[in-house]
Design brief:
single chain, alpha/beta, Rossmann fold, 2 domains, 12 strands, binds S-adenosylmethionine
């Protein structure tokens, strides 16, 4: 993982400083007192690439591409649309409903997991990068500035900081209804600048056929992958591309269990 330090806002309360020290211990990073130093100064002094910043009610990571913080992002509008009777392409691709068991292998900023949780009720979401996992899992548990049904959906997402390949090996056959992958796009979609701060942290390794085979063993109904429209990843990994979203930059592929 990238070299990082943990610090706080300037003039932190005792509780904020204590949380920062706890997180540093948990993640195996150094806690550094903020004093009056800028992020650039802290990075230079400590030779750190990233700073995990503990604020009064939230966490963020200061990366070379900007600050990564938790926010429901597109989940807010997507859930509003679902409540209004509209469809959602991911939910249609996953074919889930209330009570479905969902394994989301690529948490990222958590928007997809929140929408899945709103529909299914409970989601297990995996994230290999410990800084992303910490910031997003803290946000899912503590974010308050949204409507109750969205906050409830956030609280039901269980985040596990683990590599999906390792996790899948530990799962029993057919133990989730559906397994979902949203890997970092093989060819970065530049215009989605909202996720730029995730890029220096996110794991870019491509999915492998072996991991897809494991996912097929673990999924009872189907395995779903999101990739950019026209991606050769669908064919390489054996996914059938779903119709729809002709004008969208992303597409969904599925592998159905017989
Ligand atoms: C494109 S983002 C997912 C975005 C997410 N669907 C959302 O709605 O915000 C991909 C995420 O998967 C994570 N990831 C990549 N490889 C992984 C692996 N082997 N195990 C677990 N997480 C992984 C990356 O670190 C990154 O945070």
């Amino acid at each position: 993982m990238n070299n990082f330090i943990v610090t706080t806002i300037r003039k932190p309360t005792e509780a904020v400083e204590m949380l920062a020290k706890e997180i540093a211990l948990k993640l195996g990073g150094n806690f550094v007192a903020r004093e009056d130093l800028s992020f650039d100064a802290l990075k230079t002094i400590h030779g750190a690439e990233n700073i995990l910043l503990v604020k009064k009610n939230s966490l963020s990571v200061v990366t070379s591409e900007g600050e990564l913080f938790f926010h429901p992002n597109t989940a807010h509008l997507r859930i509003k649309n679902l409540r209004g009777g509209e469809s959602d392409r991911l939910i249609d691709a996953l074919k889930i409903s209330s009570g479905s068991k969902v394994l989301d292998c690529t948490l990222g900023l958590g928007s997809d997991a929140i929408v899945e949780s709103f529909v299914a009720g409970k989601v297990v979401a995996l994230e290999v990068n410990p800084l992303i996992a910490e910031v997003v899992s803290h946000g899912l548990k503590n974010f308050t500035d949204d409507s109750p049904h969205i906050l409830q959906a956030m609280r039901r997402v269980e985040v596990i900081n683990v590599d999906y390949g390792e996790f899948l090996k530990t799962c029993a056959d057919n133990s989730f209804d559906v397994v979902y992958f949203d890997p970092m796009f093989r060819h970065a979609v530049k215009k989605s600048s909202g996720i730029n701060p995730i890029r220096p942290l996110a794991d870019n390794r491509p999915l492998t056929k072996e991991i897809v085979a494991e996912a097929c063993r673990v999924a009872k109904n189907r395995v779903v992958m999101k990739e950019h429209n026209g991606s050769s990843e669908f064919k390489r990994l054996g996914f059938e591309i779903l119709d729809g979203g002709n004008y969208s930059s992303v597409a969904f592929g599925v592998i159905d269990k017989a």
